[in-house]
Amino acid sequence: MAMIEQLTQLKKEVVAKVTAAENVKQLNEVRVAYLGKKGPITDLLKGMGKLPAEERPKMGALVNEVRAEVQQIHDVRKAELEEKAIQEQLEKEAIDVTLPGRSVNVGNAHPLTRVIEEIEDLFISMGYEVAEGPEVEKDYYNFEALNLPKGHPARDMQDTFYISEEILMRTHTSPVQARTMEKKQGASFKIICPGKVFRRDNDDATHSHQFTQIEGLVVGENIRMSDLKGTLDIFAKKMFGEDREIRLRPSFFPFTEPSVEMDISCFKCGGEGCNVCKHTGWIEILGAGMVHPNVLSMAGYDPKKVSGFAFGMGPERIAMLKYGVDDIRHFYTNDVRFLSQFHRIEE
Amino acid sequence: MLVSLKWLSQYVDLQGLEPEVLAEKITRSGIEVEGVHHLSQGLKKLMVGQIKEIKKHPDSDHLNICQVDFGEEELSQIVCGAPNVAEGQKIVAVRPNGYVSGKKIKKGKLRGEVSNGMICSLQELGIEGKVVPKKYADGIYVLPDDTPIGMDAIEALGLDDVVLELGLTPNRSDAMSMLGVAYEVAAILSEDVKLPETSHKAATEKAEDVLKVRVEAPTINPMYTAKVVKNVKIAESPLWLQQRLMAAGVRPLNNVVDITNYILMEYGQPLHAFDYDALGTGEIVVRLAKEGEPMTTLDGQDRVLNAKNLVITNGKEPVAVAGVMGGLDSEVTEKTTTVVIESAYFDGLSVRYTAKDLGLRSEASARYEKGIDPNRIIPAAERAAQLLTELAGGEVLSGSVVFDELDKTPSKVIVSPDFVNARLGMKISLNEMVSILNRLKFDVETANGRLYIDAPTRRQDIKIEEDIVEEIARLYGYDEIPATVPVSEAKAGGLNSYQAKRRIVRHQLQGSGLYQALTYSLTSDELSQKYALETAPTTRLLMPMSEERSTLRQSILPHLIESVTYNVSRQQDSVALYEIGSVFLGKTEEGLPKEEEHLAAVMTGDWLNNAWQGEQKKVDFFVLKGILEALFAKLDLTDRVKYETAVVDGLHPGRTANIILDGTRIGFLGQLHPAQQKANGIKETYVMELNLEAVLAAPIDPLVYVPVPRFPSVSRDIALIVDRTTKAADIEAIIHKAGGKLLKDVHVFDLYEGEKMEKGKKSVAFTLTYFTPERTLTDDEVVAAHDKVVAALTESGAELR
Question: Are residues A84 and A129 in the same domain?
Answer without folding.
Answer: no
